[in-house]
Amino acid sequence: xxxxxxxxxxxxxxxxxxxxxxxxxxxxxxxxxxxxxxxxxxxxxxxxxxxxxxxxxxxxxxxxxxxxxxxxxxxxxxxxxxxxxxxxxxxxxxxxxxxxxxxxxxxxxxxxxxxxxxxxxxxxxxxxxxxxxxxxxxxxxxxxxxxxxxxxxxxxxxxxxxxxxxxxxxxxxxxxxxxxxxxxxxxxxxxxxxxxxxxxxxxxxxxxxxxxxxxxxxxxxxxxxxxxxxxxxxxxxxxxxxxxxxxxxxxxxxxxxxxxxxxxxxxxxxxxxxxxxxxxxxxxxxxxxxxxxxxxxxxxxxxxxxxxxxxxxxxxxxxxxxxxxxxxxxxxxxxxxxxxxxxxxxxxxxxxxxxxxxxxx
Length: 361
Ligand SMILES: Nc1ncnc2c1ncn2[C@@H]1O[C@H](COP(=O)(O)OP(=O)(O)OP(=O)(O)O)[C@@H](O)[C@H]1O
Ligand SMILES: [Mg+2]
Prior knowledge:
Layout: H1 2-10, H2 19-25, E1 29-34, E2 37-41, H3 43-49, H4 53-56, H5 70-81, E3 87-95, E4 101-113, E5 116-125, H6 127-186, H7 193-220, H8 223-228, H9 230-245, E6 248-254, H10 262-283, E7 287-295, E8 298-305, H11 312-316, H12 320-331, E9 335-340, E10 346-353
Parallel strand pairs: 6-7
Antiparallel strand pairs: 1-2, 1-5, 3-4, 4-5, 7-8, 8-10, 9-10
The structure holds adenosine-5'-triphosphate (ATP) and magnesium ion.
């Protein structure tokens, strides 16, 4: 007991605490409401609504909340004033001076003000937090959609693959089989010219079979990547894109990288493919330039178009394309950035670190 008395004696007396200064400078909004009107607010509280302190003092409670929240706020006010619920904490929609809605978290309690029952409390602006939570929910939804889409397209691709192998390769191989059977049947005859003819047919057929196999394989993996390497394959894709779309293209490559892992090359190839598809679909561009700066520890690839540019709104509501590009970049520890292009359009930059470098460029 003696101990606690010593501690209490050492404490600063309440009359010594500079409450007014603390309240005035508080990061939370502080308010006193009496007779349903604001009698005192600090600067932070007034700023949450876009008013000056002297504009708010005297205003009615309902003046600062949205019409939909008015009844609820008044009910809670009276519950506290009458002592039915002396202290309360809740979230409500308020009305900013410029008309927008701000979400506040209110902690309020019954007090006496000039001898009358009043409410005093604190308010925190949680509009940004709610908006971030909403965006997080939305991006999770988008990722789920993306995952669904990827699964669906993978299934489609497998089905197409199976059909092609069955119908195309199966048909051709059985033709070859029949031809070989004919060769065998006719091999016994004295005239050998027939054999030469059949052999020629067989050769043509074999070639067709090889072409078909290549086409089918190319659907699951771009062959140019194997034969040319990533950067040359991208250059070739860009040239073909220019011919098809009528958009002028330019390509610039500086430096070299060590051989790229298969997955890295495929992801980058697909990212450029999607970025070019977006240029053709959305940009209305006249020129697209693709530059690659390569080093031993990574490379940076940028695609710059002179089209209409991507609006903030479009970025916030990215389709599967942008999400898929971002996810592909993430899979190879890269970073994808979408900014304003040098000629007013869109600039897509992809930075990819290479193993051993230990960091993004
Ligand atoms: N190069 C660009 N120029 C102008 N706008 C672009 C460009 N790239 C993307 N956009 C904008 O960004 C949005 C999102 O692109 P994203 O690729 O994610 O979706 P999408 O192309 O509309 O549909 P998909 O999911 O089929 O790709 C586009 O709808 C478009 O408004
Ligand atoms: Mg797209």
